[in-house]
Amino acid sequence: MGSQWNNVIFSDEKVFTISKQGLKVWKRPHESIMIQEPLKPTSLIVWRGIWINGRTSIHITDSTIDADEYQNIIFEHVIAPEVDRDKLFQQDNAPPHKAKSTLEFFEAMDLELLQDYPPYSPELNPIEKVWSWMEAQVCQMSPKNKEELMNAIDLCWKNLPQKTIKSYISHLDTVCKKIKKAKGGSIRE
Prior knowledge:
By secondary structure, this protein is of the alpha+beta class. It has one domain: Nucleotidyltransferase, domain 5, CATH 3.30.420. The chain contains seven helices and five strands, in the order E-E-E-E-H-E-H-H-H-H-H-H. Strands 1, 2, 3, 4 and 5 form a five-stranded mixed beta sheet that branches. A hairpin with a 2-residue loop joins strand 2 (42-51) and strand 3 (54-55). It is globular and about 70 Å long.
């Protein structure tokens, strides 16, 4: 595995949603319906970071993540626990990530960003494979409400083997070779 990935914390957010849209109930005209669960979708935003030999704690919220909240998440899950502070930090170009206050926060906290990394290239962020793994696991658990969804996400994160994370990060070398061979063009993964 290329040593350049040993020194990177990959991070990202993902929205997990359970939806009851399209629920159909067949009844006779004289029968009443009693639906105990709300029909609106339930969503949670999940943030986390991974690296070759570790991971951050997971952050789950049902509110929007703005620049201030993002900085609080980074402080709570990366800075305060002193998670491998010698590592480069990778993030995408989401508005809270590139906000002036966030960049100033990173500088003040001496958290070095991975530079010149394509911001909109999911094939180059191994955490996208982690999201896919987790989404499949959460889906199998069939959560029915916000609490069950939160518990499912948390359990999947705890049960995700570190060797799986390591394999996703190690696979970056192969992805980079394919992209180079395609002269920067799209690849099939």
